[in-house]
Amino acid sequence: MRLNRYLAACGLGSRRKTEELIKNGLISVNGEIVRDFIDIDPRSENVLYKGKPIKLQDKLYFAFYKPPFVISSLKDGTHRCIGDFFGHLDIRVFPVGRLDYLSEGLIFVTNDGLFANKVTHPSKKVKKTYLIKTKKQIESKLLNELSKGTILEDGFFKPLFISFTENKLWIKLVMDSGRNRVIRRFFKKFDIGIDVLKRISIGGIKLGNLAPGEYRLLEESEILQLTQSK
User: Fold this and answer.
1) Cα separation of 65 and 108, whole Å?
2) Which residues contact 173 (CB under 8 A, 6 or more apart)?
3) Cys-Cys crosslink for 171: which of 118, 132, 189, 192, Cβ 3.0 to 4.6 Å?
4) Are residues 38 and 22 both part of a single domain?
5) Is residue 100 among the annotated active site residues?
6) Which domain does 17 fall in, by range?
7) Residue 16, domain CATH
8) How confident is the prediction along the chain (230 residues), in pLDDT tens digits per residue?
9) From the candidates 36, 84, 100, 191, which is the catalytic residue?
């Protein structure tokens, strides 16, 4: 089994994160620091992280409503973070992807690095749906311009779908991009201010009736829906 894949299965993070752990010399196998993605046999070889043994864990999958003004990380010295809501668990979990500090809504939290990789990898093109409240009502003509997309500093961006809700201060947007703060940068390009940015679904899994700071376990059918999609 490839070492980075094993580390992800042990809950140390996504495969990308575990690759960083290996490169930084934090993993040893049979007493030797390794910096390559070697193949191992977990049944017969001793794998340590920061000098401590690791093992495969029972998998947990949560849908979490991240409130605004919360950092999408496990720890932060200044602000509240997602880890503060899950600190009571005996098993280490981590957020899958991120929402920026001001944004709110659905984010998955798990200890399954392989699941995290499947949900966030750009090749999977997992669709995400957002509700956006603008600072002032925009005209239909401008919404039409938004639907055509535009060039940002990191390339062209075009939403898969964008429309007004019944209240024209709110806009519904669907995308499959994972680029950093792309919605805020996209709206700023058109001089549109955002009051609220709320993610309401990922890959068809909906935020539902969760209140800010609440979470629920994902159903087995939901996990399969996310991991078996393209």
Assistant:
1) 9
2) 129, 130, 132, 159, 161, 162, 183
3) 132
4) yes
5) yes
6) 3-53
7) 3.10.290.10
8) 888 888 887 878 777 788 899 999 999 999 999 998 888 888 788 999 999 888 777 789 999 999 999 999 988 878 899 999 998 877 789 999 899 999 999 999 999 988 999 999 888 899 999 999 999 999 999 999 999 999 999 999 999 999 999 888 899 999 999 899 999 999 999 999 999 999 999 999 999 999 999 999 999 999 999 988 65
9) 100
